[in-house]
Structure formats: C-alpha cells, structure tokens
Design brief:
Length: 671
C-alpha cells in the first residue's frame, strides 16, 4: 500500500551520462551568501539559464533529464514502430508491441477521424443500465478497461501478514487532485471549483450534449464527487497505516454498503474467490452507498459517462486532449502550452507496457559500472546507518536492537528486474489506440488481481526501469533503484566522491531512512505492521519529529500557502537523515584524508553542492500551490535549505555564523 519515493514527480527514460553533467559550476549564483540561502547560491545560475518551458509547469534538473531521456526512448520507439513483420529479419515480438502501441498513439489524424466511436460500446452499456442492482457488473467492466469509477480496487500486501497478497478496496472516484479541493473556502479554491465545472461541462459538450444539458450534467458530477470526497480521508490521515487498514469479510463489506452488489462486482471484475479484503476507508463505503441510494439512475449514468471520457483523453480526439490540458495543466498547474504529442505517447507506452519498453531500455543501455558502484555505495551507507542508530542518545538498547535487525534485513534492488512480464496475450494494433490502452489496462488489472491469495512476489517493481526515481517499500522492506536514476546528476563515475555522495548517496540514504520515518518505523523487519518500539522511544521520536513538522510548516510554498509539515514529515525526515548518513559514509570512505579542493571548493562544500544541485528548478505558482496541498514532498528550495540548515557540518564547511538563516540557533535532528 505504501511506497516512499525520492522525487516529487516521477520521470521516465534514459540519458547519455556523458552528455549531461552531474555537477555544473556555472549553475552557482555567487552574489548570494550560501549561509543566507544555500539553494539560491547553488542553483541561481541554473534557474536563470533554464527558464520555464511553455509546456511545463515545473522544470528542474529532474525534468531536464526527463526531456533527454524521452528523446532516447522516442528514438527506440520510432525505430520499433516501422511496419515490418515480426520475424528474424524484421521486428522482435517486444518491438512489435511497443512500436505499434506508440504508432497508434501518435496517429492523431486517425484518432480524430474515429471521433468518440471507440467510446460508443461503453456509453451504450451505461445508457442501457436498467436498475441499480445492475450497477456492480457495469462498474466492474469499466474498471477492467482502465477507468476507476467510484473507488479503487486491486491487490495489496496484507499489512499484518506481509508474505501474502490480499484484495484491497480504497477511496477514489473524484476528478480534482484531492478531497480537500471540494471543501476549501478560500477564493482560489472557489475559483478552481468553478473552473472544474466549466471543464466538465465542455467535456459533455464534446460527447454530444447541448450546452444547457452539459451544464446540468456537470453539476451532477460535482455533487456526486463532493459526496464521495466527504467520505474520504485527507492526505495527512492517510499517512497513518493503522488508519487505512480494516480487514473485513465480504459479508461485512456488504453490510457497510448494501446498495452496491459487492459479490457481483468481485466476480465480474475477475477477482478470485475471496472471503476477506482490506477496506482502507470504511466511511468512504458508507458515503458511496449514500450516493447510490440518493441519486437517480440518470445521475449515476451521467457520473459514469464523465469518468469514462475523463480516463481516456489521451486516446480521444484532439479536442478532448486540449480541454483536458486547459484545466489540468493550464489552470491547475500553470503550463502555457500542451506537451508535444510524442512526449505524451512515450509516457503512455512506458506507463501501459512498462516491462516491454523497460526490457528494451535495459538491453540497450544499462552498463555494469554504475550498478556495481551503486551496490558498493548502498553497503557503505548501510554501515553508516548502523553507526548512527548505535550512537543515538534518545533510543533505548532494546529498540536499537530491533532497528538493527530491520536494517540488516533490508533488500537492495538495483538497476534491473529479475523477471520480465510477458505481454504476448495483449493485442496491440497499429490503428486502435483506444483499444490498445483498454487491453493493456485489462491485462494489468488481471495481473494484479491474480496475485490475491498468493505469496508476495518480492522481485516485482512498482516503477518501470527507465524511471528516474527511487523508492522504499516498507511492506517488503526493500530499497529500489531503477536503472534510469543511475546517471547524472545523481551519479557520474567521472566525478569525485563528494559530489556523488551528495547526489546518489543522499538518494540511497533517503530511501534507507524511510524505513525509520514516522510511517516506515511502524513496520518490522518482515514488513508487518507491528509496533516494535518501547513507549518511551516512540514518544522521544515523536518529539524530535515534531521539530521537523514545525520547521517545514513555517516555510511558505507560494503566496499565503504554507508547506504542510505533517504531510511532508516522512520525506523531510528522509531528506535530513539521508543526507546525514551519506555524509558519514563519505567521511568513512576518505578515512581522514582531505582531498584537494576542486573548482575552489573543499570536499565538504562539494558534497553539499552535489545535494543542492539535484534540486535546481523553476516552477509556476499554480504548480507550487498544488504541490503544497497534495504532495508529501516539500518544494525544492525548502528541501535543500531545510536539510543543510540542520547539519553542523554544513555550517562548518561554509563558515556560517550561528543565527544566520542556514545556521539557526535551534536545529532539528531525528537520525
């Protein structure tokens, strides 16, 4: 259920490491005092030289790498999309899948010519719905084709028995980014809801409704989604794994929501026979039941039709794509232009056929050098984490022993997959973008539901291999580094240890620290949700973590919107702890030696610069607002400044006087 990522935004692809520097001295702004604002000192030159592209709401070094990566993936996909037979002299089976999938997505002329005809079968099924008793089977059918009306349903690890997969039912079914968007009363939120109504109205017009009818339908959608949002947990509540775990029988679920035939849904969606499942948010099931009970059949059909179109805009005519962009990218996030079609189709291919594209990616690009060095760095940083735990003054010997058991049980998955998915049963046609997407979605849902009742496959990944990101999974107790992140600016084999430890080393430390943040610490070494802390240690941890809540909660994200210190606590803890233990590992590696300065900076200074320059970026105010309201990661400047301001080693490296912005009198530290 939970996975903690390094990046605020997942990016995809591969770049040529030699063409993309891991450290750039011209990115500095030497007019800024590093003790006043280390982020601006480290990144001011970069942000000035890299203005926000018109098709981006945020553009940073992650995104610059993403653009380079997509270009390489585009070349791979265009070569694979040539209409050649699948044989030894033509294309491989994998090339046919990814090539024809991409070709069909890029065929915007053909997509436009087909109009909304691909939706007709499902729209007709919705229109033909007779009674609310038949709703469950229809919703199951729509889920199988890639939409998620009303709720989310899949498999998950049992939090109390991490070796087993169980069925999981969770809140969902809304079109705004988060439940709070439906209830905030500030003017910006009111305006966004009005814009959302306009967007839904225009989408119904594109489906063929008159302006007046479309407006009425949009009001219906807003009413139903608001009711679903009202029964949903907010993001901070969802951070507590105990609050989103409620194992119950199917009969108990039916009693909780009697107006939806859950047994019929489970059978129709393709789930194996089950006796129990995890109902993450019971109040949501009650809210859903009230929605079904109180709304007319016509209103429920209106809601289903909206989500069908909303979920498929990328494979619908250009007018749908433009309208989707106008609200979700332009109004909500501040982008000025739609991303080029090829970028969207690269992402769609990676998202829906991840192992097919990822396998081609790894076979063509992954070298042993970065993977080998990353394994070494992981081992070194794990040793530093062990030293850190043993030296903690606030933790008792009993809890330390448990923590070390968990640390030693962490599995490292780096740079490749042990087993690749076989997409031979997924039909991919060059002239059927909509069908390709639906069939790929059906394959993935069937794969996920097929896990229910079986042992957990710990070789599986939650990210495709081209992804530029990393994550820690507390239920598997493993850290995961896809091949895509083993490159500059995170790692460059030609650069000194200081920069690499400030980059990929801090990423490794970040993910490792997630095992012991306010969420991860609730899981034991086997990934089971179990309290292994003494009461006194738990209180001490909470007190130290509260310092970070207050520190980051005092930062302003944009205008009058503050960073949510509780929502971002896990990521902030990981940033601070990860940077610290990576620094410790660097010092152990150097064994007291002091390398000569490079570019005029000492080893310690380059370590912190390596950390900061990963986060250089420009971002629209709208995107910053959305991030502050919905994202568990703090804005980039706060991630940089927040972490370094808590480290005495940084103060010493840059000779910062106590009381300066980067050297506050009171610093926070958990790990």
């Amino acid at each position: 259920m939970f996975a903690f990522c390094f990046s605020a935004i997942v990016t995809t692809g591969l770049a040529n490491a030699q063409a993309y520097p891991g450290f750039d001295i011209t990115s500095l702004d030497r007019s800024v005092d590093p003790c006043a604002n280390f982020y601006k000192f480290s990144c001011g030159g970069w942000t000035a030289a890299n203005p926000l592209p018109a098709d981006q709401a945020r553009y940073g070094r992650f995104d610059a790498l993403q653009d380079r990566n997509r270009t390489v993936l585009r070349t791979m996909l265009e070569a694979a999309s040539a209409d050649r037979p699948v044989d030894r002299s033509g294309r491989s089976a994998i090339e046919q899948k990814i090539g024809d999938f991409y070709f069909a997505c890029m065929d915007e002329k053909g997509i436009n010519a087909r109009g909304i005809a691909p939706l007709k079968a499902d729209l007709d099924r919705i229109a033909a719905l007779k009674t609310k008793k038949d709703l469950a089977e229809l919703v199951a059918l729509l889920h199988r084709s890639g939409t998620s009306e009303f709720f989310n349903f899949s498999s998950e690890q049992d939090p109390k028995d991490s070796a087993q997969e169980i069925a999981g039912l969770d809140q969902g079914g809304i079109g705004l980014p988060d439940r709070d968007y439906y209830f905030k009363t500030d003017q910006k939120s009111v305006d966004l809801r009005a814009a959302y109504l306009t967007h839904v109205t225009k989408m119904f017009e594109l489906l063929g409704s008159s302006a007046a009818d479309a407006s009425k339908k949009a009001q219906v959608v807003m009413s139903i989604e608001t009711a679903l949002a009202d029964g949903s947990f907010d993001l901070v509540t969802r951070r507590d794994p105990e609050k989103v775990y409620h194992k119950m029988t199917v009969k108990e679920l039916a009693m909780l929501g009697p107006d939806f035939d859950w047994a019929k849904f489970l059978k129709a969606v393709g789930a194996p026979p089950i006796q129990s499942l995890d109902v993450s948010v019971p109040p949501f099931i009650k809210a859903l039941n009230a929605v079904i009970d109180k709304n007319s059949m016509d209103d429920l059909k209106t809601y289903l039709s909206w989500h069908l179109a909303h979920s498929n805009t990328i494979v619908l005519p250009a007018a749908f794509q433009q309208e989707d962009f106008n609200f979700y990218s332009k109004i909500l996030r501040g982008a000025k232009e739609m991303r080029p079609r090829w970028k969207r189709c690269v992402d769609l291919t990676d998202g829906q056929l991840p192992d097919a594209l990822g396998r081609a990616f790894v076979e063509q690009t992954l070298g042993p050098q970065g993977t080998e060095r990353t394994h070494q760095m992981v081992a070194e940083i794990e040793k530093s984490m062990e030293k850190d735990i043993q030296a903690l003054a606030w933790m008792s010997p009993k809890t330390k022993q448990e923590a070390l058991v968990k640390l030693h049980a962490v599995t490292n998955k780096i740079g490749n997959k042990a087993h690749w998915l076989n997409y031979s049963t997924v039909k991919v046609a060059r002239d059927d973008a909509f069908g390709n997407s639906a069939r790929a979605s059906a394959f993935e849902l069937a794969r996920q539901l097929g896990k229910i009742g079986k042992p957990v496959d710990k070789t599986d990944w939650e990210m495709s291999q081209p992804t530029v990101n990393a994550y820690y999974d507390p239920q598997e107790n493993d850290i995961n580094f896809p091949a895509g992140i083993l490159q500059p600016p995170f790692y460059d084999n030609k650069l000194d240890n200081a920069v690499n430890y400030g980059g990929i080393g801090a990423v490794i430390g970040h993910e490792l620290t997630h095992a012991f943040d306010d969420q991860g610490r609730q899981y034991d070494e086997k990934g089971n949700l179990r309290d292994w802390w003494t009461e006194a240690d738990a209180k001490a941890f909470d007190a130290l973590a509260d310092c970070l809540v207050k520190q980051y909660g005092g930062y302003t994200a944009v205008d009058d919107v503050k960073v949510n210190g509780k929502l971002t606590l896990g990521e902030n803890t990981a940033d601070n702890g990860g940077l610290r233990i990576s620094y410790m590992a660097l010092k152990d590696l150097e064994a007291g030696k002091q390398p000569a300065p490079i570019d005029g900076f000492t080893e310690d200074q380059r370590f912190f610069l390596g950390w900061a320059q990963v986060w250089c970026q420009n971002q629209t105010p709208e995107s910053l607002r959305q991030q502050a309201l919905t994202n568990p990661h703090s804005p980039s400047d706060d991630r940089v400044n927040g972490a370094v301001s808590n480290m005495p080693e940084f103060r010493k490296a840059f000779s910062c006087k106590e009381g300066s912005p980067m050297a506050p009198v009171k610093a926070c530290r958990v790990w």
